[in-house]
Design goal:
The complex is a heterodimer of chains A (258) and B (264).
Chain A lengths: L3 H23 L12 H17 L7 H22 L2 H4 L1 H6 L6 H29 L7 H29 L3 H15 L16 H4 L3 H13 L6 H22 L3 H4 L1
Chain B lengths: L3 E12 L3 H4 L2 H6 L1 H8 L4 E12 L3 E5 L6 H8 L7 E6 L3 E4 L12 H11 L4 H14 L15 H13 L5 E5 L7 H16 L3 E5 L3 H7 L2 E6 L2 E7 H11 L2 H12 L5
Parallel strand pairs in B: 3-7, 3-8, 5-6, 6-7
Antiparallel strand pairs in B: 1-2, 1-4, 8-9
The chains are: A mainly alpha (258), B alpha/beta (264).
Chain lengths: 258, 264
């Protein structure tokens, strides 16, 4: 019989083969393979730098690093929610036929996007060097793993909740797209959090995503996760606990719902 | 029989289609009356108070007409479906062989698919990789290991699916009408492999409409109808009683011909 340790090893294997499947399918037949995932971030960095520094002359210090430090983690979250919300439904035949742990399906989506996010980190470091002439602060060494772990849990929790709801209400798919659009603009990604008028400051902690995104920006620009780290931890815990409850209640019925 | 490998104890399964929850928001807004009517959940009793014991190392057949609840029972024993009432205890690792090659991805190679499938069936990755040689050897697909699965014929896919499943170290093998794989020669090979697994002490629960095969493969059988156990016992007795009830051997032959899978 299996011990918890071998069970954990098995879930790891499961995750690994599912993520590898995703990545292989996405870059199948391309000669650059996963390096293509650098294309978008690099193009974005160049555009931001040239358009907003040289042409429009925005009054924000190190503008490309400023935007990208929040945009890359946002893209991770948003891609995972978009792909993950339909992940239970899309894998209906697997869920109906095989008894593997279902959580592996949304987890593989989040892990796949995590890989893409990690690939963007060197781009971020280069942009920082390019704009400020100094190497990334030492705070990255501990800050990056901490924030990656926090955001992975937060994102997985959100994906599990959305994907579970999606099996019950098919409208969730459309609703998610609208919600993501709104979330993008109420989260300080294109603007600094300090730009929010005092009467709207509560948005920073009322929005589950704002604290972690602010932490990323603070880490990249100033070398530490900054004052919103506790809020990010609290939101991650809240979302994870809710997701665990949702998953527990949906798991036994999942094969009938998809 | 020794201690049971599978014990099914008073299992009832009621399906409540979740259609009532899947009505869209639009439905509720535009046709409230209709939406309300739909919201009344319909219930479908698939299994009712089913008891079953399968001894360790036994090959047990499940027979019965379409809609008798055979696949639902297999799904419950396989841990995919949760029973509404009652419980199932399995004493060993269950490998559900409910469908060959479930989860195969056309754009990955045969080898990548075998690894993916093996892990989904419950094996550690390194274990599947060790067995790749044997898997492709048995499936007679050595030359196609690196080829993408979409270039395989449906027969080749089934062969690969069957081969991965029987190499997945099963202790309890649940087989749902999937042995009609490939040509006559390969089918023979599959049955030989099943017999080999039996000799190695693997418990087999076998669902089929092909009664001759059930007699060939199984020692005991259970006849299900309308979600209830009609009869359980030595395979020949149960099959004979079932054939009689279905309107004699001739009619059973007809049914069998209908149930036979399409030729490739």
């Amino acid at each position: 019989m299996s011990t918890p340790l071998t069970a954990a090893g098995y879930v790891w294997d499961l995750l690994l083969v599912l993520v590898r499947k995703e990545l292989k399918l996405r870059y199948r037949g391309t000669s650059l393979g996963i390096l293509w995932s650098l294309g978008n971030p690099i193009a974005l960095a160049v555009v931001l730098h040239v358009a907003f520094r040289r042409v429009l002359d925005v009054d924000i210090d190190r503008y490309a690093a400023f935007i990208l430090s929040a945009l890359f983690p946002w893209q991770w979250f948003s891609n995972s929610i978009t792909e993950g919300s339909k992940s239970f439904l899309e894998n209906g035949d697997l869920i109906k036929k095989l008894p593997f742990p279902r959580i592996a399906i949304p987890a593989a989506v989040v892990a796949g996007d995590l890989v893409h996010f990690v690939i963007t980190l060197p781009v971020l470091a280069l942009v920082l060097v390019w704009e400020s002439g100094t190497p990334p602060p030492v705070g990255w060494a501990s800050g990056v793993p901490l924030l990656v772990a926090l955001q992975a849990s937060l994102t997985l929790g959100a994906v599990v909740i959305v994907a579970s709801a999606h099996t019950l209400f098919r409208d969730i798919g459309q609703l998610t797209r609208v919600a993501l659009l709104l979330l993008f603009y109420v989260t300080p990604i294109l603007f600094p959090a300090s730009m929010l008028p005092p009467d709207l400051r509560w948005l920073l902690v009322a929005n589950p995503l704002a604290p972690i995104i602010s932490c990323w920006r603070h880490l990249v620009m100033k070398g530490s996760p900054g004052p919103l780290l506790p809020a990010a931890v609290v939101w991650t815990l809240l979302v994870s606990v809710t997701a665990a409850a949702v998953y527990r209640s949906i798991r036994p019925r999942l094969a009938e719902l998809v | 029989m020794s201690t049971p490998a599978i014990t099914v104890d008073g299992v009832t399964k009621v399906f409540t289609p979740y259609k009532h929850l899947q009505t869209s928001v639009k439905q509720v807004l535009l046709h409230p009356a209709q939406a309300l009517r739909r919201a009344r959940p319909s219930r479908f009793v698939a299994l009712e108070g089913v008891d079953l014991e399968v001894g360790a190392g036994e090959a047990h057949g499940l027979i019965g007409p379409n809609g008798a609840g055979k696949s639902t029972l297999l799904g419950i024993i396989g841990g995919v479906i949760h029973p509404t009432e009652g419980r199932v205890t399995t004493r060993a690792r269950v490998s559900p062989l409910l469908e060959l090659g479930v989860g195969f991805v056309p754009d990955l190679s045969g080898e990548e698919n075998a690894v993916l499938n093996g892990v989904l069936l419950g094996l550690r990755r390194c274990r599947v990789e060790e067995k790749l040689e044997a898997i492709f050897d048995f499936a007679e697909l050595d030359a196609f290991r690196a080829h993408e699965l979409r270039t395989y014929s449906s027969g080749m896919r089934s062969r690969l699916g069957f081969s991965v499943a029987v190499h997945a170290d099963p202790e309890i093998l649940l087989v749902d009408e999937v042995l009609a794989v490939g040509d006559v020669r390969f089918r023979r090979k599959c049955f030989d492999r099943i017999a080999e697994l039996r000799r190695a002490g693997v418990t087999i629960l076998f669902v089929s409409h092909d009664l001759d095969t059930v007699i060939d493969v199984c020692d005991r059988a259970t006849w299900l109808d309308g979600g209830r156990v009609v009869r359980t016992g030595p395979v020949r007795e149960v099959v004979r009683a079932y054939e009689k009830a279905m309107g004699g051997a001739a009619a059973a032959q007809g049914l069998q011909a209908l149930a036979a899978p399409p030729k490739e």
